[in-house]
Amino acid sequence: QVQLVESGGGLVQAGGSLRLSCAASGRTFSSYGMGWFRQARGKEREFVATINWSGGTTWYRDSVKGRFTISRDNAKNTVYLQMNSLKPDDTAVYYCAARTQPDASSLQGSYDYWGRGTQVTVSS
Predict the structure, then answer these.
(1) What are phi and psi of 6, to 5 degrees?
(2) Regarding beta strands 46-51 and 33-39, do their DSSP bridges make them parallel or antiparallel, or are they unpaired?
């Protein structure tokens, strides 16, 4: 069983930055593909970014490319999402997810473990 705990959310003005962290329990973190997803109020949860086990492969949804960066530190069992140039449309609950396969994936159904989420609010 893997437990994921997100942190780093909060209220920020448009154009600002936040860094989300996701701490994972368990000794097999370094073999897992990881992802970040988000759900805005009244909308379905959507893919944001994903990273493979080594950090060598990353994918992003188009609307965050060039602004968000996903990274991981396997020694600390932690994955990060650096968010720059934030926009009001980025307002959502952000979820961290882990999959027992080592590769990256944008498919929600391919993830086995989910965190409880952290709220990000971007004011205009």
Answers:
(1) -90, 150
(2) antiparallel
Output the CA torsion sign for 73, 75, 4, 7: negative
- Cα distances (angstroms) measured from residue 103 to each of 25, 53, 74: 19, 6, 15
In degrees, rounded to 5, the angle at the alpha carbon of residue 8 between the alpha carbons of residues 60 and 112 is 55
**Looking at this protein, which amino acid is placed at residue 22?**
C
Amino acid code (one letter) for 14: A
pLDDT band at 27 (very low <50, low <70, confident <90, very high): confident
Cβ-contact 96, 33 below 8 angstroms: no
Q: What is the DSSP letter of 63?
A: G
What span, in angstroms and rounded, lies between the C-alpha atoms of 55 and 52?
A: 5
- Closest by CA to 86, choosing from 12, 6, 28, 36, is 12
pLDDT in tens, 43-100: 999 999 999 999 999 999 999 999 999 999 999 999 999 999 999 999 999 999 999 9
